[in-house]
Specification:
Helices cover 68% and strands 5% of the residues. By secondary structure, it is mainly alpha-helical. Helix 3 links the parallel strand 2 and strand 3. The longest helix has 17 residues. The termini are far apart.
C-alpha cells in the first residue's frame, strides 16, 4: 500500500518492531521495481541491515553503503547489479551527498528550513532526471535508510523521484537507544574537536543531536546537556546567535549548570554583548566559585567594558585558583598596561614567560611596556626574544626600530623598519603601486582602494614608513626622508601631515620646499 507523508501520526508513532515488520511484509510482497524510504537513526539503520537478511530468506539482499558525496547513484547501482543479481538493495549514507552542498547556516538546518533553499544538490537533480531509468533497468526494491533531514530534502528537492515511493516507514527510537546515543554524544563532546570538524561533519553532528532532542523518550537533564553540545557546535561554526539560543535552552532547563552559563557568556562575548556576557560569567562563578575559566572570561568582559581595575581583580582570582594559568597572567599584564602601570605589567609578563617561555606575545608586550618606561635596551632584548619565536612579527620589528631610534642608532633602526616592511611585501607593494602622490590619492579611486587594503593587512604600515622618514631626516638623507614620509602620508594623510608639522625629527629638512609641499 502506498503511504503518504501526511499519513504519519506523530502523536501515536508505531512501535519500532511493528514498523519494521510492516517493512518486511512490504518487501516480501513486492516483485520488480519498488522505492521505499525508512526514516531512522544511523544506529537503527545498522539494526535493520543486520535483521533483514534473516527475516527475508527468500530474497537476495545487497547493501550499498555510501561513505562520501556522490552525484550519480545510477552508475553505482549498475556496477553492483551487473556483478550480483539481487532483489533488494539497502542504501545508507545519502546524507553525505547533501552535507557537501548544504550552504545554509547551521542554525537554519536545525530549524528544518527547506523552503528557502536556492540550489539543489547534484545527487537530487540526478535522481529527478533518471527516475525512469531506475524503474526500467532495475527490477528490484530500493530501500533508502535515511534520517529525517534527508527525507525532508527528498520531499522538497527531489519530488519527481520521491513521488514514486512505494511506502515510507518511520522507525521510532526506543528509550534504550535514546539513552545510549545521547550518552555517547555527550561523552564525545569537545569544543576543541568541534573546531576541527569539516562543515559536512558539523552538519552531521548537529543533525544527530537535533534528532535526539526531538525524541519523545528524552529526559530533561539529557536534553539540557544536548542543547549545551549543540551550542558548542554552533559556536565552533561561528554562528553565535544560534549558539546563544541553544545555551539559553540549556540553562533554562538546568539553571544551576555553571558550564551552561559560562558558554552562554562566551557566545554573548562573541556577539560583542559584553555587559550581558559579564552577567553570565558572574552567574557561573556564583554557582561554582573555583571556576577559574569563568573568572578569567569575566575579566575579559570587564576589560572590554574598560573597567580595568575590576578586570585585574578577576584575573587575580583566576590566578589564585590556578597559579600556572598563563593566559590570566598575560591578560593581567595587558590590562595593567592600559592603566600605565608598566612595572606591574612587566612583572605579569615575566610570570607568563616563566610558565610559557615560547609566548611571543608575552615577550612583545613586555618589550612594549619597557619602551613606555624608556628602557630602550631592555625593550630591544624583549623584542628580539619575540622575533626569535616569530620572525615575521611586524609589530615587534617596528617597535624594535622605535627603541633603536630613541638610542640614536639610526642605521639599525632603519634596518629594523625594513624588516617590518618585508614581513608582508605584497601589501607594501599594493599600498604604493598606485598611491604615488597626494594628488593621486585624492583623485584616484583605485589608489584609495589599494591603500585601504594594504593597511587592513598591515595596520602599522604607515607608522613604519613615518619612522623610517624620521631616521633619514635626522641623518640628513633628505631624499630618503621625503620618499618615506610621502608613503606614510599616502596611507594616512590626516595623521602624518599634522604630525610632521611639529615633529622635531624633521627640523633638519623643514625648510625644504618638497617637505613644505608634503605637509600642506
Amino acid at each position: 500500500m502506498k503511504q503518504d507523508l501526511s499519513d504519519w501520526d506523530e502523536d501515536s508513532p508505531p512501535e519500532p518492531e511493528a514498523a519494521y515488520q510492516d517493512l518486511v511484509r512490504a518487501l516480501k510482497r513486492n516483485s520488480g521495481f519498488g522505492l521505499y524510504f525508512v526514516q531512522c537513526s544511523p544506529g537503527e539503520a545498522e539494526q535493520v541491515i543486520g535483521k533483514i537478511p534473516h527475516d527475508l530468506p527468500q530474497k537476495k539482499i545487497e547493501l550499498l553503503r555510501l561513505v562520501e558525496p556522490i552525484s550519480n547513484l545510477y552508475e553505482r547501482v549498475i556496477d553492483l547489479y551487473s556483478n550480483k543479481q539481487f532483489e533488494v538493495l539497502l542504501i545508507t549514507g545519502l546524507e553525505y551527498s547533501l552535507y557537501k552542498y548544504e550552504k545554509r547556516k547551521f542554525g537554519e538546518i536545525t530549524e528544518g528550513q527547506f523552503s528557502n533553499l536556492s540550489s539543489v544538490p547534484p545527487i537530487l537533480n540526478h535522481l529527478n532526471q533518471q527516475r525512469e531509468r531506475f524503474r526500467d533497468d532495475f527490477p528490484i526494491s530500493f530501500v533508502f535508510l535515511v534520517r529525517s533531514f534527508s527525507l525532508n530534502y527528498l520531499l522538497h528537492r527531489a519530488p519527481d523521484f520521491f513521488d514514486w515511493r512505494s511506502a515510507v516507514f518511520e522507525l521510532p527510537t526506543t528509550r534504550e537507544v535514546v539513552e545510549l546515543e545521547s550518552s555517547r554524544l555527550i561523552l564525545e563532546g569537545d569544543y576543541g574537536e568541534y573546531l576541527k570538524l569539516a562543515p559536512e561533519e558539523k552538519i552531521e553532528k548537529i543533525l544527530e543531536i537535533q534528532d535526539l532532542l526531538d525524541e519523545q523518550h528524552q529526559t530533561e537533564n539529557i536534553r539540557a546537556s544536548l542543547q549545551f553540545e549543540l551550542g558548542g557546535l554552533l559556536h565552533a561554526a561561528q554562528e553565535y546567535e544560534s549558539a546563544l539560543a541553544s545555551y539559553e535552552k540549556s540553562v533554562k532547563i538546568q539553571p544551576h549548570y555553571p558550564e551552561g552559563w559560562y558558554r552562554r557568556g562566551n557566545a554573548l562575548g562573541s556577539l560583542e554583548l559584553h555587559a550581558e556576557a559579564l552577567a553570565s560569567f558572574e552567574q557561573a562563578v556564583r554557582i561554582k566559585c573555583d571556576y577559574y575559566q569563568a573568572w578569567f572570561n569575566k575579566g575579559i568582559a570587564l576589560y572590554k567594558l574598560e573597567r580595568f581595575k575590576e578586570a585585574i581583580a578577576s584575573f587575580d582570582t583566576a590566578i589564585k585558583i590556578k597559579p600556572d594559568y598563563h593566559q590570566a597572567w598575560f591578560k593581567r599584564g595587558v590590562t595593567l598596561d592600559e592603566l600605565e602601570r608598566y612595572e606591574d605589567a612587566i612583572a605579569s609578563f615575566d610570570e607568563t614567560i616563566k610558565i610559557k617561555p615560547d609566548s611571543h606575545l608575552a615577550w612583545y608586550n613586555r618589550g612594549f611596556a619597557l619602551l613606555n618606561l624608556k628602557r630602550y635596551s631592555d625593550a630591544i632584548a624583549s623584542f628580539d626574544a619575540a622575533l626569535k619565536l616569530k620572525p615575521d612579527y611586524q609589530e615587534a620589528w617596528n617597535n624594535r626600530g622605535t627603541a633603536l631610534l630613541n638610542l640614536k642608532r639610526y642605521s639599525d633602526a632603519i634596518a629594523s623598519y625594513d624588516a617590518a616592511l618585508k614581513t608582508q611585501p605584497d601589501s607594501q607593494n599594493r599600498g604604493n603601486s598606485q598611491g604615488i602622490t597626494l594628488g593621486d590619492l585624492r583623485t584616484n579611486e583605485n589608489a584609495n582602494t589599494s591603500v585601504e587594503e594594504a593597511v587592513k593587512i598591515q595596520p602599522d604600515l604607515h607608522q613604519t614608513f613615518y619612522n623610517k622618514a624620521s631616521c633619514y631626516a635626522i641623518q640628513g638623507n633628505i631624499d630618503s626622508a621625503l620618499e618615506n614620509l610621502q608613503k606614510a602620508i599616502n596611507l594616512n594623510p590626516d595623521k602624518y601631515q599634522k604630525r610632521a608639522k611639529t615633529d622635531s625629527n624633521f627640523d633638519e629638512i623643514r625648510q625644504d620646499e618638497r617637505f613644505q609641499a608634503l605637509i600642506q
